[in-house]
Each structure stands twice: as C-alpha cells, then as structure tokens.
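Q: I'm writing a short explainer about 2OG-Fe(II) oxygenase for a general audience and would like to include a description of its predicted shape. Could you first generate the structure from this sequence?
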Amino acid sequence: MTDSALIAPETLNQICDALAGPGWIVLPNFLSAATVGELHQLAQQRRDQFNRAGVGREAGHQVRNDIRGDSVLWVEHDDAAMLNANARMAALQQQLNRDLYLGLIELEWHFASYPAGAFYQRHLDQHREQDTRVVTVVQYLNPSWEASDGGQLRIYLDDAQSVDITPYGGTLVVFMSNRFEHEVLPATRERVSLTGWYRRRSL
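A: Of course. Here's the predicted structure. Afterward I'll give you a sentence or two in plain language.
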C-alpha cells in the first residue's frame, strides 16, 4: 500500500483526546487518495468472497433486508495485501490502551459494500448481553464521492442531536461503540468502507 503504516503522533493524540471527551471524531484525509484507490480496487477484486451481512449471533443470526443491506468480507491479520492497513490499526490500538487504559485485545474488521439504495437501520455496536466491542472505526473507500451521492453515517449524540458524516474517500470515523447509536443512510451508488471494532475480553 502507498501510505506508511505509521500514524502521525499528533493524529493519535487527537483521536485519544476526542474519545476521552465527546467520544467521537471525524478525520478527513486520514488515507491518501492513492491508498483509497488501492483498497477500493482490492475490495472489487475480492467481490466474489463477500457475503450478505446479517444481524444477531450464532443461532440467532439471520439476514434481514429490512434492517441492513450490506455485504462484508472479513479482514485477516496475516493478509499480505492489508499489511499496512492492519499495522495502522495496531498502532492506534496500542495508543488507545496506553492513553485510555481500554484493555483492547484485538481488532475485528471487514470490508463493507452497500449497493445503491441499501441502508442499515439505527443500532448500537453491541451484541445482546455482550460488552466486548469498545471502539468503532470506519475508513471510507469511495473515490470521487459527492455529498449528493448520499450514504451518510448518522450518529446520534448524547444531547439528542445527530450528525451526518458523508463517506468521502479517505475519511476516518472513530467513536465509542457502546455510547452512540447510528445508522447508514441510502446512497445512489455503491458505498464501500472498512469497518471494525476494537474488542476487550468480556467483563
């Protein structure tokens, strides 16, 4: 990949300060245009490996078009094509543990593809009776995206307000998983991201 695996120290500090305060942050241009293009191309090359996403876990898992319409491909930690992407996220995990004492043990993340018109209803990034997801991270891989294309991430904030985040290529969104409900609005074209969660051991 084109980008260095390193994240600038000031960016790491900015993310940690935001999570310790308001609990969320949006960083435009976290990824270069070249890396966005490479990751987007990788997702397209692996399109036949994507599977329809569902809701629920284990025996309760089911595909529900009325709730979410994306397909996903999980990222392996030893994937050579994802070496720098995984290293960047590992660096962020170390900083979050160092500064915020979150006890994060791993990142689980996947490519997510929303076809035109697909959405994900309002939800919280926690499975029922589970508290292992701590921090949500989203990287958008949409070259030449326009606000009019739609596909915004709507985050519901603590003060009963909401913020809409347009999925411009290269943007990073980070927020506390158990604090903010959110939804994905429909878009007029395919919307691609890398989405995941830093996890801790169950309490």
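A: For your explainer, you could say: The two ends are 37 Å apart (CA to CA).
Q: Perfect, that's easy to follow.
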